[in-house]
Design a protein that fits this description.
- Helix content is about 40%, strand content about 25%.
- By secondary structure, the chain is an alpha+beta fold.
- It has 6 helices and 14 strands.
- The longest helix is centred in the middle third of the chain and has 34 residues.
- The strands form 3 sheets. The chain has a 6-stranded antiparallel barrel. Strands 2-9-7-4 form a 4-stranded antiparallel sheet, with no helix packed on it.
- It has 3 domains: about 100 residues, Efflux pump adaptor protein, beta barrel domain (Elongation Factor Tu (Ef-tu), domain 3), CATH 2.40.30.170; about 60 residues, OB fold (Dihydrolipoamide Acetyltransferase, E2P), CATH 2.40.50.100; about 130 residues, Helix Hairpins (Orthogonal Bundle).
Length: about 375
């Protein structure tokens, strides 16, 4: 009985001790965790701050193809420096080369037609041929002599018919021969007159029209050929500016479509680099163009790690904010004014990259207090 009587008090005392230890442990102050990196120190007494994005001075250029097709060769490489007009990649051009061969053959055929039409026109304009007139004149003279002979025979037949030495049928035959010979003479004279008159104007006009039509056919064929050459050149995608290749998103054998949302090649001029700063619309009205500023790379907030920057320009249109920093105080429905600064000096050991986020502080020169800087600033 005495043991049973002591068990319950001992259990109660143990529970009380555990409770006291738990309360004491929970009442201890837990130290705040150390930040991953210290926030950047403000270099000005009054400043405007914003998230910045490192970008090429030319801005990012999404190089696209003018035509759809299969990639035959990719010349561009990541980080390659290219000049304006350098080849970046080529699309398969075999089908266009075959079409070009047919078009060039059509040009040759059309040019032959032009030569034939011009020869026909020249022949028309050269009528009559000098060597054809003597033969026609000789033929007229021949028929005239034959006609004279036939008439003489007819006269003799008539005299013989009166004396009864000839038959009436022979006289009729002689008359028919004279009539035929007269018709032959008229024909020979007409042919001579036609030859001496030269080319007929309507025939010359028809020949000239044939020449014009043949030349038009050549022009059409050459136009088709030139269009195919242009399309062949369009299959070769070249650098639109001098700069660096930042991304290569295609490989040989892949297809390129005009509806693709991913640019095959991304490039830009990285000498120098710019920073596109998003100033909140609440601060935008206080920004003064040309105001000095400094920038810090993420994870590098020491005074000697500041990037020296100078003002370049403003994009004078307030747009919805797209670049988010991840801050819990950040409003995603705000609008921002984008200000462009140039990186003029980078601390030793640091390398800013295109697309990298930075923290930017710009002096609020409209504030009444004087400028106070904790780091050297560009003039």
């Amino acid at each position: 009985m005495r043991v049973a009587t002591l068990v319950l008090p001992l259990i109660a005392l143990s529970g009380l001790g555990v409770a006291a230890w738990t309360v004491n442990d929970l009442s201890k102050k837990v130290p705040d965790p150390s930040p991953v990196y210290l926030p950047a120190a403000k270099p000005f007494v009054h400043s405007l701050s914003g998230a910045g994005l490192v970008e090429p001075s030319s801005e990012v250029v999404d190089v696209a193809s003018e035509l759809s097709g299969v990639v035959a060769e990719v010349v561009a490489r990541h980080g390659m420096k290219v000049k304006r007009g350098d080849v970046l990649f080529r699309l398969d051009d075999r089908h266009l080369k075959s079409e070009l061969a047919k078009a060039e053959a059509a040009v040759a055929a059309a040019q032959s037609s032009v030569a034939a039409a011009m020869a026909a026109l020249a022949r028309q304009k050269a009528e009559p041929r000098p060597e054809s007139l003597p033969a026609l004149r000789a033929h007229v003279l021949e028929v005239e002599r034959q006609l004279a002979d036939d008439r003489d025979r007819l006269d003799r037949e008539k005299l013989l018919l009166k004396s009864g030495a000839a038959r009436d049928r022979d006289t009729k035959a002689a008359e028919f021969a004279v009539a035929v010979r007269e018709a032959q003479l008229a024909k020979a004279r007409a042919e001579l007159m036609l030859a001496e008159a030269g080319a007929w104007a309507p025939d010359v006009l028809v020949a000239q029209t044939s020449v014009d039509a043949a030349r038009a056919a050549v022009a059409v064929a050459q136009s088709n050929s030139e269009a195919l050459k242009v399309d062949l050149d369009r299959l070769v995608v070249r650098a639109p500016i001098e700069g660096d290749v930042l991304q290569v998103n295609i490989r040989a054998g892949e297809g390129v479509t005009l509806s693709s949302t991913i640019a095959p090649i991304v490039m830009g001029d990285t000498n120098p680099l710019h920073i596109r700063v998003d100033l909140d619309e609440n601060d935008a009205s206080r920004f003064v163009p040309g105001a000095p500023g400094v920038a810090f790379l993420r994870g590098h907030q020491a005074k000697d790690e500041a990037l020296r920057i100078k003002f370049v320009r403003i994009d004078p249109y307030v747009i919805p904010k797209r670049a988010l920093t991840g801050s819990v105080f950040e409003r995603v429905d705000t609008r921002v004014l984008q200000v462009i600064y140039e990186i003029v000096e980078v601390p030793k050991g640091l390398t800013p990259w295109c697309g990298q986020q930075v923290e930017v502080f710009i002096e609020d020169v409209a504030a009444p207090t004087s400028r106070v800087s904790v780091i050297p600033l560009p003039k």
